[in-house]
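PROTEIN DESIGN WORKSHEET
SECTION A - STRUCTURE
LENGTH: 233
TOKENS:
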């Protein structure tokens, strides 16, 4: 297995976790120290706000509050669809702090399946799982570390756009423009935040340059998720 075959899946992990949207709100804290991953969340210095969510009149503060709640979640499922030079669909399961299961499907056919647990990476080749000699897990942002506001400097024109229903759930809609930290392809984005819990339900992004043209992510927090090492052949 070459790095070229692994890279698209890795990029999708970053994207689903918020590379083009929420990632700018999260500190990139480097490798996960514990190679024996567990499902125990890192203890936060302060508890994230919970309960019903409502606009405060300050759209930036609302996005920060949403990000705090997102970072406090122990697990979620996300479905992403991208269009562009490398169009694909992806399903990702996440259990804090460092367990991932990713399946990507390409328009031309074929799919990849990957499991990341700490520093261990497994990929399904045909009918068999293999342990890869590549440490991808430590390259993925640690979703449980301290939240930082510094990334907000890459956001512009943050606006509250009103109320909408998303998949039968009442939500508040926000829009903003931005670019990747340090400069990158600019994009315009929308995010739907659930009224009931203040968590992101859906995110869309439209890029004005580059190979990636559009991206949509839908989050599921209700499905029970387990991620264990596969049987390696």
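SECTION B - SEQUENCE
RESIDUE ASSIGNMENT:
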């Amino acid at each position: 297995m070459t790095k070229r075959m692994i890279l698209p899946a890795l990029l999708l992990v970053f994207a689903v976790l918020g590379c083009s949207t929420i990632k700018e709100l999260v500190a990139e804290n480097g490798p996960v120290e514990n190679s024996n991953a567990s499902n125990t969340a890192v203890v936060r210095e302060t508890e994230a706000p919970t309960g019903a969510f409502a606009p405060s009149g300050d759209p930036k503060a609302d996005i920060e509050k949403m990000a705090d709640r997102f970072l406090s979640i122990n697990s979620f499922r996300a479905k992403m669809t991208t269009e562009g030079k490398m169009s694909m669909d992806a399903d990702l399961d996440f259990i804090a702090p460092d367990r991932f299961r990713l399946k990507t499907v390409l328009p031309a056919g074929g799919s990849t399946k990957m499991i990341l647990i700490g520093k261990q990476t497994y990929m399904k080749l045909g009918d068999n799982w293999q342990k890869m000699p590549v440490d991808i897990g430590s390259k993925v942002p640690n979703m449980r570390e301290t939240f930082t506001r510094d990334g907000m400097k890459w956001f512009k024109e943050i606006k509250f756009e009103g109320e909408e229903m998303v998949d039968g759930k009442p939500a508040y809609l926000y829009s903003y423009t931005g670019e990747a930290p340090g400069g990158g392809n600019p994009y315009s984005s929308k995010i739907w935040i659930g009224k009931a819990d203040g968590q992101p339900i859906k995110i869309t992004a439209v890029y004005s340059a580059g190979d990636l043209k559009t991206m949509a992510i839908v989050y599921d927090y209700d499905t029970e998720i387990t991620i264990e090492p596969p049987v390696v052949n």
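SECTION C - NOTES
Helices lie at 3-16, 59-71.
Residues 1-7, 18-47, 142-148 have pLDDT under 50 and may be disordered.
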